[in-house]
Specification:
Shape: globular
Radius of gyration: 24 Å
């Protein structure tokens, strides 16, 4: 056996699987399967198959997912940097497929980092509705935010909050909630041997208690008639069927939607019918558990918009922040009009190195001036007007799917689509603004080829020589200015063109290495 499994784990699995145990144990000598998932915000699964530099095999439970060959390095191709696909373990693609997301839904991904399932949800929303992606661990939200930005999410919000506070802020609000629950990780033993080292016989019980708290909070945030998908990457019954059975005993308004025993999904164990498992000895993927739960209440009027919900006071239950954070906010040198004030407090600028600039205060600039500068850029650069609510953090501007009051008191990492910042009275477009655009939405664009090395040169931050005839420019628009730089037609970032030279605006923290 390639992986040295803990004795107490193997004994438990022998009891659980019976005659199947030997086949299960033999699967640990096999090489884990790799996969990618087409980002349908930018490209269809069929188009990705046509242009993929490596052979792709469809994944049965995910119509946009594909197995990649052993030895393939999808992260070292320009298409990855253009956000055309997400590198994801094949079994991990299953839970979102069971969530039933449709454009216009309000969706909460409660334990979202590093963002694989959130990007999958965003693709299904197609820019319509709302996606709130949350993770309790501050460091993990950096990768979560960056992935949502790379894959072109326009209608996403990233929070760093506890499930309880989110439920208090958004009671009975979401149509669909995904809980990819923290767990003992037994299903990842073959893929990640560190998970084996961290495991002991008491680990499942510890996580089972945590999972009950998360499930209860999610229940409070789910609208009547809504769907909740609970998933883990473990085999332990107390974290899977046991967690669901205990939750249902205290929440009679919920019921299981049967999915086990269909397609690639094996039936769950115990006396709770309808849950599903993916086993490494039965499918090409790691171990996963899934349960689909339905809130049996009568759905409310889905036409209610965000402002109507705000008027109903659904954020009033959020507890005030502690005094130190309040004083920090009050002591800020940012001068905003009352309409600008946003209680988020945290996440005032893009985190990590994605933008690479220090935040400057708006100072004498009022909101109207900043919006005017942004609006002028939109008129000059785009063929459409992005919809949403403008939200300010310092000199950074976001377009949010919710009014800024909806996020008051919540630790907000990204309040929406980051479009840019004000510098010396000028609007500077942000990198995530570009990655969420399509070439035809920009009045000035350039497509770089993956075949001659110029795409990689751009991703490395190099200045390029580009004759004006290569630019695609709307009639009447000058060549000089910001250019939406694309890779084989798919947006990747900004450049500034002047006199045959393309100044590279690709952020340092994102560059090809």
């Amino acid at each position: 056996m390639a992986v040295q499994l803990p004795h107490s784990f193997t004994e438990r699995m022998k009891e659980l699987l019976g005659t199947e145990y030997e086949q299960f144990a033999n699967s640990y000598s096999e090489i884990p399967y790799g996969g990618i998932r087409a980002n349908t915000l930018k490209i269809t699964a069929e188009q990705l198959q046509e242009i993929s530099p490596f052979q792709l095999e469809p994944i049965p439970w995910c119509p946009t997912g594909f197995y990649t060959p052993e030895g393939a390095r999808p992260g070292k191709h320009p298409y990855y940097h253009a956000g055309l696909y997400y590198i994801q373990e094949p079994s991990a693609m299953a839970p979102v497929e069971l969530l039933g997301v449709t454009p216009g839904d309000r969706v909460l991904d409660l334990c979202a980092a590093p963002g694989g399932k959130s990007t999958q949800i965003a693709a299904k929303l197609q820019g319509k509705g709302l996606l709130v992606s949350n993770d309790l661990h501050p460091e993990r939200t950096k990768a979560l935010a960056k992935n949502l930005e790379l894959y072109g999410t326009r209608n996403g919000i990233v929070l760093n909050e506890s499930p309880e506070r989110i439920a208090a802020a958004f009671p009975a609000f979401f149509d669909r909630i995904l809980i990819d629950a923290p767990c003992s990780g037994e299903g990842m033993f073959r893929k990640d041997e560190d998970m084996v080292k961290q495991w002991d016989s008491e680990t499942p019980a510890k996580y089972a208690a945590m999972q009950q708290e998360i499930l209860s909070s999610a229940a409070a945030a789910l609208a009547p008639g809504g769907t909740l998908v609970y998933s883990t990457c473990t085999f332990a019954m107390e974290e899977n069927e046991g967690s669901i059975a205990k939750f249902l005993s205290g929440h009679p308004q919920f019921s299981v939607v049967p999915v086990g025993g269909t397609g690639s999904f094996a039936e769950g164990f115990g006396e709770l019918p309808g849950t599903a498992r993916l086993w490494p000895h039965k499918v090409k993927g790691e171990g996963h558990f899934m349960a689909v739960l339905r809130h049996n209440g009568i759905p409310a009027n889905q036409e209610t918009d965000a402002e109507d919900i705000m008027k109903s006071g659904y954020t009033q239950q959020v507890k005030p922040e502690d005094r130190s954070r309040e004083k920090k906010r009050q002591g800020s040198s940012v001068k905003l009009s009352p309409r600008q004030k946003n209680g988020g407090g945290k996440g005032g600028r893009p985190q990590g190195k994605s933008e690479g600039s220090n935040s400057r205060n708006l100072s004498a600039l009022v909101e109207e001036e900043a919006l005017a500068a942004y609006g002028q850029f939109v008129v000059e650069q785009l063929v459409f007007q992005p919809g949403g609510y403008p939200v300010f953090f310092g000199d950074h501007i976001y377009i949010s799917p919710l009014p800024k009051e909806a996020l008051d008191g919540l630790k907000t990492i990204r309040p929406g689509w980051y479009v840019g910042s004000m510098r010396n009275g000028r609007f500077i477009p942000g990198h995530p603004f570009a990655t969420a655009l399509r070439a035809e939405e920009s009045r000035r664009s350039l497509s770089l080829s993956t075949e001659n090395g110029e795409a990689v040169s751009y991703l490395k931050g190099e200045t390029l020589t580009v004759p004006s005839e290569r630019l695609v420019v709307t009639e009447g628009i000058p060549y000089k200015g910001y250019v939406l730089v694309c890779i084989d037609g798919y947006s990747a970032g900004w450049g500034k063109w002047q006199d045959g030279m393309l100044k590279n605006e690709y952020p340092a923290g994102w560059r090809w290495t």
